[in-house]
Amino acid sequence: MGRIGMYDLEFDRIMGVLENETRRRILAKLVQEVHYPLQLSKELGVSQQAISKHLKILEDSGLVESYFEPTQMGPPRKCYRPTGRFTITIDMGPNMFQTRMAELEAIEADALEMKALGVKVLEVGAKGAGAKRAESKVASVKSAASKENRSPTSPEQKWVMDRARETAHRADVSGPLREMAQEIARLDQDIGSLEKHRCELLARKERLLQIARENLFHYHDDYDLRKVLYYVVSTNDWTLESIADSLQMREKRVSELVDWLLEV
């Protein structure tokens, strides 16, 4: 193992936070919507005190943030939302172990972008087809009540109008939801294809490392030489400084070994 760099420290810190199952369950809830501690306690079946401790760890690590939300009754309550954006992969085989952590780019999805994805987005205040049908139904009920000299706000008429508005609202919401769900499914399919291809490439890399171990490494008694051999084969990096830093070896010693390899 090489010297501990910033990447290693960040990776270890995040892994230390995510190794706890309860904290992972909390994050799974927070990505769905903002939650407050008592709400999480009830949802996860964990004491509020324990939830608060886990939330503090998540906030200290930069994975979530808190803010106060006003309530209709009582003082404002403290709510939490996720802020972390990254991806972590760990690859392991008999001849290979590697970790990778990368930051995900923050992309703000605006209305134009959503439309480009084929998603129907209704602007704030705009009326969809469902809302227009509801207005027509309500107008029809009022007109019929007027002709019959009845109040359009009788319990029966009010129920009909409320029902029409509720049905229309569901129609206006369900269409865009279906389209977004279909687009996300397509994205998941593309990600799955990339992951499959990546696994195939990793299997080839693993096989080449196995061949290198069986046919090159074991012919040398020098442990330092075998370490250098593995490093240069797995990284294709022959830089003396990089080898010395990663393997925690003196650069002079690395230079001697690399010179010997290049002369073979």
Structure notes:
The protein is built from ten helices and four strands, in the order H-H-H-H-E-E-E-E-H-H-H-H-H-H. The protein is 62% helix and 11% strand. Residues 121-127 have low confidence and may be disordered. The protein is elongated. The longest helix has 61 residues, at 155-215. It is mainly α and 264 residues long. The strands form two sheets. The protein has a two-stranded antiparallel sheet with strand order 1-2. A two-stranded antiparallel sheet has the order 3-4.
Features:
mainly alpha; two-stranded antiparallel sheet; elongated; 264 residues; 4 strands; Arc Repressor Mutant, subunit A
The structure class reads: mainly alpha
Spatial separation of the terminal alpha carbons: 27 Å
Radius of gyration of CA atoms, rounded to a whole number: 30 Å
Q: At the fourth CATH level, what is the homologous superfamily of the domain at 6-113?
A: Winged helix-like DNA-binding domain superfamily/Winged helix DNA-binding domain
Mean pLDDT across the residues is: 81
Highest CATH level, the class of the domain at 6-113: Mainly Alpha
| Helix-strand string | HHHHEEEEHHHHHH
Uncertain ranges: 121-127
Percentage of residues in helical conformation: 55-70%
Largest sheet entry? 2 strands, antiparallel
Strand order of the largest sheet: 1-2
Oligomerization state = single chain
Strand % is: 5-15%
Strand element count: 4
Total helices: the number is 10
CATH architecture of the domain at 6-113: Orthogonal Bundle
Using the coordinates shown, work out and report the CATH topology of the domain at 6-113. Answer: Arc Repressor Mutant, subunit A
Shape: elongated
